[in-house]
Specification:
Elements: H1 4-18, H2 37-53, H3 59-75, H4 79-92, H5 97-109, H6 113-126, H7 131-143, H8 147-155, H9 165-177, H10 181-194, H11 201-212, H12 215-223, H13 235-241, H14 261-270, H15 274-287, H16 292-304, H17 308-321, H18 326-338, H19 342-355, H20 360-373, H21 376-389, H22 394-406, H23 410-423, H24 428-440, H25 446-462, H26 466-478, H27 482-500, H28 502-516, H29 541-544
Helix pairs in contact: 1-27, 2-3, 3-4, 4-5, 5-6, 5-13, 6-7, 7-8, 7-9, 8-9, 9-10, 9-11, 10-11, 11-12, 13-14, 14-15, 14-16, 15-16, 16-17, 16-18, 17-18, 18-19, 19-20, 20-21, 21-22, 22-23, 22-24, 23-24, 24-25, 24-26, 25-26, 26-27, 27-28
Length: 554
Amino acid sequence: MKFTRIALACVLALAALAAAADTIRPVPIPDMSKLDKSRAAQLVEMRQQFDKAKTTLVGPPLSQAYATLAANYQQAGFADEADVALANAILVSPEDARWIYLRGLLAGKRNQPAQARDYFEQAFRLDREYLPIRLAVIESRLAAGETDSARQLIDQAGEAGKDDARLAALRARAALLQKRYPEALSAVEAALKQDPTANQLYALQAEIYTAQGNAAAANSARARAGNTAARTLDPLGDGFLGIRSQAPAQAGGAAAKPDDPLTQARFLIEVGQYASAREHLAKVLKSEPGNVGLLGLSARLEAMLGGHATASTQAAEAVRLAPKDALVLVTRGVVAETGGDERAAQSDYEKAIGMDGKLAEPRLLLGNRYMRQGRYAQAAEQYRQLVKLDPRQPDGYARLAAAQVADGRCADALRETEAAAKEYPRMGPLLQVYVRLAATCRAATKEQRKTASEYAGLLYKSNLTPQVSEAVALINAAEGNFTAASELQGSAMFAAVRDGGNEAAEPFRVFFKQFGAKQLPDRPWPADNPLFKPARLQPQPARAAEAPAPKPAG
């Protein structure tokens, strides 16, 4: 497959994009004259920190910074400014479903149902595992009258939605629309059992009884109806909207705590508000000093922010309180690795895997450790287990392929990736791994390269990120078309600069030089790519300066 003309068109299109609306736009500074002085001062300081930080950030950290800005502006009532910030986050990380989902929530708050639905559908195509995204899509499809497709998504929710009251409520709504009244009533009862406080469900129950012609039962249910909807735990959405996360009440009617400190802290960390997360954790730990989850999260945050002494103390205390908890051992390992003691970290990761082989994090971190040691076969085995644990996560396939290539087994990597691509033919990042392998592995067959060329065409049409452009460039180089390869790689660099500055283009220069010299790379990624050389966990200097670490207890 030849891409010469397409590549030239790509360069011109990207040049046009630089002047179009779908590029990084300055986030307007809102008029804060109507806010109280304290809140306005907080927003001014936050914006100053953002403007200073964004010049040094690229990729996911930059998109998270934009999301943080959006969350702050949204919660202060500045929806327009928040929307611009989220749009930038999506442009920087177009395959990160989180920011697309949040933009959908924002569109819903702005009474833009069509736009909200579009964002939810986009997010769902990228992430089918996060239950709130699925629920948002189901609700939007039901609202649009697409009951059958909504019902299909309900039935496909699997274990994630087994005990979720909101999903049960949606099942009841779909069954009502399909005139399956007994099933609808059963689903309402299940939702009430899962969340007894959700008295809004009685109004739905009344609708079902009315449809059945049971007026007495409908009136009785309607008399019990209220305004409390069935809930699902959505730390991402609740944190963005400024809602205090609440878990559904437990069966038996005991209401859950109104605040979930772990959820609140995790969201603050997720969107980069590290100083706020540290302050929040320190506060709740005073009232819950024996909470192993809070201790572990605080230890990880302190390790990242450079507070190694505090982190070590908290991690050790968590292990003392829960010595048989594999997650606690992983946390102690993370703290040790961040502090530079990789041997101790490796020991904890291995112990944690021995306790619970289904944990993904210690396998990832142990695989990374083996890669740094040059133990590629052992690294490949850990990454292979990652793929088995979550076959829909493309990152695992890329890591596995890199380890096998480093071990001199690119043919094995190509064969395993080919099998996975046949099973998940719509997983773009996985197809990209296959294209890269088929282009650079000298053992690749003509048939494999033909398949890779077809995948490259699909990728090119669906989502032309800089990484996709590079993959397509590689398959062109493998076919001897170095002119097209150079043009495509040049367009990848242009897009990288557009979205993240000059530094973001550096990773693409290695192959660009090789294509210019008519050389086909012998690896699917440059040798210094993090897939081949995963960095050790270590404190983040810029973050460490945010706030002083509290002194260790005792």
